[in-house]
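Write out a record, focusing on structure:
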Amino acid sequence: MPETAVLEFDIVVIGGGFAGVYCTREAERALRRSETTRIALIAEENYMVFQPMLAEVAGGALSPRHVVNPLRLLCRRADILKGTVESIDWPGRALTVFAGPLAGRVVVRFTQLVVSLGAVIDLRRIPGMPEHAFLMQNVGDAMLLRSTLVSRMEEANLERRPEVKKRLLTFVVVGGGYSGVETAGQMIDLFRGIHRYYANVALADIEVVLVHSGERLLPTLEAKLGDYCARVMRERGLRILLGARVRSVTATRVLLADGSEISSATVVSTVGNAPHPLVLDLIEKNGLATERGRIVTDASMRVPGHDGLWAAGDCAAVPFVKGGWCPQTAQFAYREGAALGRNLVRARRGEPLQAFRFEGLGELASIGHRAAVAHVFGINFSGFLAWWMWRSIYLMKLPRFDRKLRVMIDWTLDLFFPRDINQLSPRYSTQLKEIHLETGDTIFEPGDPAFSLYVVASGRVELSDADEVVSTLLPGDHFGERALLGDGRWMFRARAAETTRLVAIPAAVFKQIVGSGGSLGKLFERSASRFQSRAVIDTLASRLPPDVLDAPATSLMQSDLVSLRPDQSIAEALPILRTQPHSSYPLVDDAGRFVGLLRREDFHDFLKRATTQATTPLSAVGFVAVPSVRPQTPVRELVEHLVRSGANKLVVTSEEGVLLGIVTVMDLATAAARGRT
């Protein structure tokens, strides 16, 4: 297995949002050229998203490339580590970072740690919302939503059933805060701009519905601004449901708490923010003070009682100069980050720290069609002036001149040309891949990263532990679940023993299947236990006394068996199954040769079929193949057969295949228990 790489830094910042990026930038600026402090910024993406402009990406007013900034250009003196932080060992001053399936895991050691992870979306409280709702958290979400909006228009243009067309052209936005209002406004602008290009879609056919649990939109603004926002957006066609809560969501409906429902195939959720799991884990393991899942800090953003631990942004509860805690907004996040960056350098120099004293400049929200609402420096603005202020302020805050210029060009072109109606979305030929192998071709080696679950379509695959073949896989067999469910690395070597064709199911698809729960997930978990190393098998065998291990299979086998014949009818078998209940029954032919096992649950399922007759033979039920061993096979080999096959029992047969007995896992466990006593 490959060794885990170890990286060491003086300061490590976790999170590539406003707080993390501006903390890193400001620390870089505060450091003198002569200071050798090493800073690392760890983020799941190699860019920072300018969140306030995401709604315009979804509405087609801005290119997604123009609202993201490469971290390596924003933080030129820091080491940018793109990866997912899996765990934080605060007492040991170390992080475990997953860099990717090829690079694996890296340990990052630090002296000072800044936690600036944003909130995550948790929609599990509303049934159906996780499966069916679109989000607006990152640039990928905005691109997917825009592609879906255009796709719905394309489908509706061809649809002739009124109820289906209505469902396609009804769009529900959940949440009346800034993100919800701005997203709904941009959707209306998009539909007003493109509907004329669809011959069979009239503007009156399109409906955007905003569902908000509060009594007014934009509750953090003054009431009259929220009322103005609602009035203007209603005039533009938005249907607003105030004081309404979503009870559940299906693929075709949104059900509300009052019993009403909305027929819609497109739901956008802008609610459901929850603390990051990594932050909750850090709080729990280290007894940190918390405020609704946020790490409580002092005014300098240092975590009290934990020297070297800092927090900022959405995951931090930073004292607000007006009382309470700083709002979880972009303007506070990036100013908290900048102030924290300077304090990091002061702390390393032994200088006094400065308290965060920002009071906020105001709040702005774009509501579409060159209109906005704003509360800036205690003054309320609305309409075109507020919209001009919104664009001007956010343009100034957008990092890097080239991005400012690109956004200005996009906005200017939007004044004179229609919005882009290309449906740009990644398109793949198939999620499944077929792999052709010649004899001797290697599929993977021990320690290689696992990307897929494999199914043998034809040919033969051998799995080897060192030079020992541990399993031979034939058409219909699958392998790879052990690595995908475990550490993501192959334990064995896999090679084609003859010309072979495999079907590869990507790891992401496999994990979706297993993550959905139910019988499929349990099936894979059970089958994964087949693939064990020689060391594991030897450990299991060591639990048996030496005299038992060397004894033949006949010493443990059960020979008093209730067997059936494949040609017996259902009517003939029923009395036997009723009076002698077992989980399974061996099937033998007229000569006593073993054919297979009839499982009781399979028999019950077969009885429920409409085509089953009393005269139907047991061979129609189907049977399970079970590994067989010879009478003289040592018990130590039985252990290996049971582990390698994934079976719970083995049949003991003669050279001619005549059934002599059965050995089960229970028989081995009983022998081991006797040995301990």
